[in-house]
Every structure is written in C-alpha cells, then in structure tokens.
C-alpha cells in the first residue's frame, strides 16, 4: 500500500481514521453513545473493516488498506420516517458525484443505492437510522467503494470493478474520496429540506436501466421489465407486461 493512501490517524473536518474495526457503522453508533454532541458529518474511516455490512443482511468484503470503508453521520432537520428514502437519494448522489470525478462516463445508480460502472458494482451504501417520535434523529451512512483493489473473489470478479481498474491509476487517494463524499453530503442534505423533488429528479436521471427493457426476477419468475422511475417513498415504478407496477426492494431482483 502506498504510504500516502491514508493520512496518518485522522484528518481535518471531523474525519477519524482507525486501523481496524469490525464495522464502521457499529463503531460510529457506539461513539454516539459516548460523545455528545457528536458533530454532524463526522466520518469514521477504517483501513481494515473485518465485518462490513451490506443491504439485506449481506456482508461487504474489502481488501485491507485498498478501499474506502467509512461511515458518515447525518442529522437531518425534522425528517419524518415516511420520507426516509430521501436520505438514500442524498447518499447515493453524494457517492455518485465523488466517483464521477474519476470516471465521468458509464456510471449509474442501481436502485436503491448501489453505484455501477458499465454494469459492474463499484460502491454500496448501507443507511441505519435512529428514530425518535416518528422523526429521524440521526442517520449513519455506511459507504464502501472499491478503490485500489484489482483482484476479487471468483464469484464476483465479473460483476465488480474498482477505480484503479477503471482509470489505471494506482496512486488514488482514499482520503480524498472521503472528503468529496462529506462535501457532497453537506451540499445535498440542505436541498432535501427545501427542494426534495430536485433531488428525486436527479436520482432518476442517473438510474440504472431506466427506460431499457431488461430481465428481472419478479415473484419467482423471469420477466422483461422497463424501469420508469423511483418515487419519493422509494418504490420502483416498473412496466411489466404492459402494466405499471410499484415494487419495494423485496419484490424484484435484477438479473445482471
């Protein structure tokens, strides 16, 4: 690993770097119980995350020292749980923009919050919310981005990529990605509170497979569907057999 891949033990702007942790999300949750108040947009980065978590209870595996594994603290103002998908949109756009600086073409958001480059996954997001009185008190946004890793396990190597594989740059700065995501979150979160439709529109413009007839698994059967958009509730609007359906995350699977 390059000596300058990470800054020493911490960076400015409330970015804390630790050598090894089971889960950056869990570490930040524990920190919130001990440090009050913890500054909004605080970031926990790990050089090695041993038990990272993904969507639907899946794990997120990352080679030590080669990728971004980090959690970001968000404290939205007066956001009801009924609108929690807006945080997924804010987080997805923030990670998308950070990656787009390095790979300006072929990038998309796979509903709900994976980032793809030319059909290959480069990043994933896991959001965990703290709820109080039907409001979101704070959110922990866990982000994993494949940065310098160039070899992946056999079962995922054909559907996974990294910034180094896409750019051929072996000296990318992982800390700079964290700065970019933190900056983007600071930019997008206030927009959520005043112009949420603008964020939804931007998210849908970047949506993977939008308007393209593609293969999906729906209720245990393979079907041809065409994604229309995602609504504010996070439901996927997709046309199947001429009928427009609204589907949650458990109702459909992509056939990549």
Automatic annotation (TrEMBL):
The keyword Ligase applies. GO terms for cellular component: cytoplasm. Coiled coil: none annotated. Keywords: Ligase. Transmembrane segments: none annotated. It comes from the Bacteria. The keyword NAD does not apply. Residues 10-193 form the BPL/LPL catalytic domain. It comes from Sphingobacterium alimentarium. InterPro entries: aa-tRNA-synth_II/BPL/LPL, Biotin_CoA_COase_ligase, BPL_LPL_catalytic. GO terms for molecular function: biotin--[biotin carboxyl-carrier protein] ligase activity. This is BirA family biotin operon repressor/biotin-[acetyl-CoA-carboxylase] ligase.
């Amino acid at each position: 690993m390059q000596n300058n891949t990470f800054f020493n033990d911490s960076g400015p702007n409330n970015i804390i770097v630790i050598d090894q942790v089971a889960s950056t999300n869990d570490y930040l949750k524990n920190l919130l119980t001990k440090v009050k108040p913890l500054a909004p947009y605080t970031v926990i980065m790990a050089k090695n995350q041993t038990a990272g978590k993904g969507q639907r209870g899946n794990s997120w595996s990352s080679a030590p020292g080669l990728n971004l594994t980090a959690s970001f603290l968000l404290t939205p103002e007066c956001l009801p749980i009924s609108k929690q998908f807006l945080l997924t949109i804010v987080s997805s756009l923030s990670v998308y923009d950070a990656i787009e600086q390095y790979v300006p073409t072929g990038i998309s958001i796979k509903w709900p919050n994976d980032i793809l480059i030319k059909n290959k996954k480069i990043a994933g997001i896991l959001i965990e919310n703290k709820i109080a009185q039907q409001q979101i008190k704070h959110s922990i946004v866990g982000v994993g981005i494949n940065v310098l890793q160039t070899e992946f396990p056999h079962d995922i190597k054909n559907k996974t990529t990294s910034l180094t594989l896409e750019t051929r740059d072996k000296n990318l700065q992982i800390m700079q990605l964290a700065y970019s995501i933190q900056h983007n979150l600071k930019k997008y979160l206030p927009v959520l509170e005043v112009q949420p439709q603008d964020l939804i529109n931007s998210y849908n413009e970047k949506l993977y497979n939008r308007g393209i007839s593609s293969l999906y698994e729906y209720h245990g059967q393979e079907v041809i569907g065409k994604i229309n958009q995602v609504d504010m509730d996070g439901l996927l609007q997709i046309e199947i057999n001429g009928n427009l359906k609204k589907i949650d995350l458990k109702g459909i699977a992509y056939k990549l």
